[in-house]
Amino acid sequence: MSWKIIERKRTLLAGESGPGRGKSGGRLSCCLVYPNRYHSAMSNLGFQAVYAMLNAHPEVTCDRAYLPDRDELEELQRTRGTLLSLESQRPLSSFDLIAFSISFESDYLNLPTIFRLAGIDPYAAKRSPLQPLVMAGGAALFLNPEPVAPFLDLVCIGEAEPTLPPLLELLKRGAPSREELLLEAAQLPGIYVPSLYRPEYDGTRQLAFDPATGAPPRVRRVWDPSPDSRPTVTEIHTDATEFSGMHLVEISRGCPRACRFCAAGFIYLPYRTRSPELVRSEVLKGVAQGRKVGLVAAAVSDYAGIGDLCCDIVDAGGKFSVSSFRIDHLDGRMIEALKASGQKSVALAPEGGSQRLRDLVKKGIDEDQILAACDMLVSHDILNLKLYFIIGLPTETGEDLEELVALVRKIRERVLAAAKENRRLGEIQLSVNPFIPKPFTPFQWCAMEPVKSLEKKWKYLQKELGRLSNLKLQMESPREAFQQALLSRGDRRLADLLVAADRLGNWKEALREREFDAEALVNREIPLEELLPWDFIDGGDAGRLRREYRKALDGIAGLNEK
């Protein structure tokens, strides 16, 4: 055990504050692992909420662990040490339960690394019953857990509030054998036991997904019907986070809009809001601590009474920021409060560059509304705008990109005119992201555009917009987006690829070694009748997804189904 690693962990703990710190003495010992760096882990509100829930159980003790940074990783390799938890500096292999919190598919890549550093076999079938039980939850697993299913004993399909309590009671009670424990766990709502299901494949297609005797044929995704049962807020504050000095408060869950490309509009249904009384109480706690309040939701401006809430924060002497706006639902009082709070920049998401594409994804806004929203913001002296667009959407053409460029130029003219009048600088940041087909959306059957084609479109945008003053362009790497798409829509056969990538230290080399045809999974349109790797999850109205898919490709904007 290296003193440098121990000292590093003690320094991190000394920099933390808040009511969510762990405890000792529980009958069931758990280590909650975020498969990325500490900075990312503590910036994740879901990770913090689950940590607090686990430690709130009177008979559970929960530590945290995360992917080591470069210095710690080099020290572990030099000393041949093992990965330790943050709070008690215990080896992960000494816990009863290891629980992964995984929000993003790209973090699937880090699971084999964490198992290796912990001295634990990555494959559940090869682990001894004396080793920790391994489970996982989080948004990535709501969508498609199959690429990492061979690593896991248990998967929580759905939100933690309803799934954790009965599962913890079962784990605390135990069973005569691990096999019996897993079979009993599979009967709980929202609990998926991968070892009880056998997939069959034929090339890129999945032919069957057969449950063992006693296992439910489908696993129902569960959601919290009582959003006021407990707040979701920052439990532990630390400067070593993206939101240093902020107190985050979730005000709603899900999104009522259901844009056809967006998973959040479908996997968190039904859309739920927290009561104004609960939210106001939590945001004022942040103000009382002298922290800026961060209002978190898929669409903050859809929250009823958002203007009043923002004014309450400012009236109490606080400041706030918001995670997202709906272009067609800007609240004037909220904008006034943002200005009073010192907010200098706002993010807007037109998504589609042309009206045809905005109708295709069912964004529900037109160019006049986009420009009106920009006018409202710049008139309130908010002169820095971040615009999110998607390229590579199904059926996209060169004409759609030309309309995107024209729209950005119109917005830039408005920002420059307001900046000149106010004698201040204004800037537009254009964030361009490749379309990635996500499970449980109407576009889950669509193909992702090839990387070379996306790179060609990016070069066009750079040519048309890259030299304009007061405008910055950034784009998610098409190759990284391709990797994310593969992990989003892949099956269990990806687990071997992930292990190979960790062993070789290179994703591309792993693809070559395994002779894996990634393009066949990512760059093809999937027939509607084909079995999808995630079809065993009972996650909502599958018929609605098919109807919306057909409407989109028929060129019909479509309203919500009756």
UniProtKB/TrEMBL annotation:
Residue ranges occupied by any Radical SAM core domain in the UniProt entry: 241-479
Pfam family, one: Radical_SAM
Domain of life, per lineage: Bacteria
InterPro entries: Elp3/MiaA/NifB-like_rSAM, Radical_SAM_N2, rSAM
Signal peptide: none
Entry-linked CDD domains: Radical_SAM (cd01335)
Protein name, UniProt field: Radical SAM protein
Native species: Geomonas oryzisoli
Source species taxonomy: Bacteria, Pseudomonadati, Thermodesulfobacteriota, Desulfuromonadia, Geobacterales
